[in-house]
Amino acid sequence: MQLFRFANPEFLYLLLLLPVMALFFILEIYRRKRAIRKIGELKLVYDLLPELSSSRPVIKFINIMIAVAAFIIMLARPQFGSKIEDVKKQGVEVIIALDVSNSMLAEDIQPNRLTRAKQAISRLVDNLENDKIGLIVFAGDAYTQIPVTTDYVSAKMFLSSIGPEMVPKQGTSIGAAISLGIRSFSPGEEKSKAMIIITDGENHEDDPASAAEEASEKGIVIHAIGIGSEQGVPVPVVTGGKRDFLKDVDGNTVITRLDEEILKKIALSTNGNYVRANNSNIGLDEVYGEIGKMKKQELESTMYTEYNDQFQIFAAIALFFLILEFIIMDRKNRKLANIRLFKFKV
Question: Strand 142-149's sheet: what is its strand order?
């Protein structure tokens, strides 16, 4: 459900013209000052030409900038939702279970495993239309970050805040993530539900194979994406402002390795696919392509179906500042300068 939107968001790219305009204005001010210095010192020239103003051109330019920005936003057609309806679409419910344990900070996938996974999920959300998506984060335990929804804007917003610090118990409990995912799907047709697990596969807490069997019995397909290297790499941490590597209780550097076997077993037991991520491709698009072949079900969601344009506000702002720019003269007016409305004689 999206309360606010731009009907033509592509016009917002025109806002990039504003810093270009500002740069040209600064260069023009610099050129004018160089020309004045050829005549004499700046202070002396301003004293000899009392009508010359150094601030008015800046004020006029600021007015123009505000007017242009408001006009661009007006073109993008800002809108607020005005009518909520229950809409039915044909789609699939997908829950992504993302590993946020400390080992996901390893840098064998650049810039690190977790960041690349979040980037891939964000791109996937951008391309969604009818499907519902949910997000579970897990480490030593699993938590629902985003319930299944078609509110893709909110999904991306919550996605950006995900990190290892949000899960109090460290470890990697894949089984807990699968069990929570099973409970998180909407009740109904079971053939249109899929889970995507993104993890390095180092399970230390439970038996994910048993949880995967339960999911299979309920008709849930689990796809697994293994992220990391089999050779193993240390986990970077920042301690006291200094970069170091994660240590165990004995002071030894922790080495994290991708465990593909358990992920392949999970995927195989639910008729899903296993994909190994690399620096060029996380594999989420490939997995979602397989999900797209699943039988679709009728999904009901609450969303705004009508929007009211609010461009009139920005049109008024643009017009106001254009008129203000027109009224303000480049030079000082001698007659107006002598007017003192609040000057009193004692």
Answer: 142-149, 132-138, 93-99, 193-199, 221-226, 274-276
